[in-house]
Amino acid sequence: MPCYQCGTRQVDPDRGESPWTRGVLCDHQILVCPRCQTLRDWTAELDRCGRCASAHLVRRLDEVECRDCGLIRLTGAEGEPDADHVCGPRVAPARREARLPSAPDPELAAEVERALDKVLGKTAKIVAAP
Predict the structure, then answer these.
(1) Considering the domain boundaries, does residue 11 fall inside one?
(2) Which residues, 6+ apart, have CB-to-CB distance to 25 below 8 Å?
(3) Is the pLDDT assigned to residue 74 strictly greater than 70?
(4) Residue 125 within a domain
(5) Which of 30, 26, 40, 41 is nearest to 7 (CA)?
(6) What is residue 126's DSSP assignment?
(7) Does residue 68 carry a pLDDT above 90?
(8) Residue at 74 is within a domain
(9) Is residue 16 part of a domain?
(10) Which residue from 123, 106, 100 is spatially nearest to 24, judged by alpha carbons?
């Protein structure tokens, strides 16, 4: 997943904790690269917990969990925010849509395939059944 600000892709991490930071924006999990973390207050755009107002959220399947107070909020169908949930209030809708994860990226798929070939040797092509 690329940085939601600049589009830089995360590379294989060194040992230890990653300098990249996760967040939730409009009920989508996002990553922010170390460079973009220093440029401005990127946390102002993130979704906040309805109970404690923390931005320390994590997205899992059909829920968003606050890592500070433990509140779990279910999301709507297909990853859409609940009707009562306001996402990224400080982000203009056009900018918000441009940054959220979109359709599968063919370049990313090719990059992943090359990485798997490098680590595992030539991988067999998996063909989906009709």
Answers:
(1) no
(2) 4, 45, 46, 47, 87, 88, 91, 96, 99, 100
(3) yes
(4) no
(5) 30
(6) P
(7) yes
(8) yes
(9) no
(10) 100
Q: Which two tokens stand for residue 40?
A: 């401005």
3-state helix, strand, coil in the chain (%, to 5): 25, 20, 55
What percent of the chain has a predicted confidence (pLDDT) above 90? 23
Mean pLDDT of 61-67: 91
Domain count, the chain: 1
DSSP letter at 96 equals H
Q: Of residues 50 and 88, which shows the higher confidence score?
A: 50
Q: Distance between CA 62 and CA 109 in Å, rounded?
A: 24
Query: How far is Cα 49 from Cα 28, in angstroms, rounded to an integer?
Result: 14
* Encoded amino acid at 10, one letter: Q
Residue-range definition of the domain harbouring residue 53: 21-101
For residue 90, pLDDT beyond 50: no
Query: Each residue of 24-41: pLDDT tens digit?
Result: 998 889 999 999 999 878
Q: Summarize the confidence of residues 58-80 as an average pLDDT.
A: 83
Strand partners, 22: 31
Judge whether 57 and 45 are in contact, CB under 8 Å: no
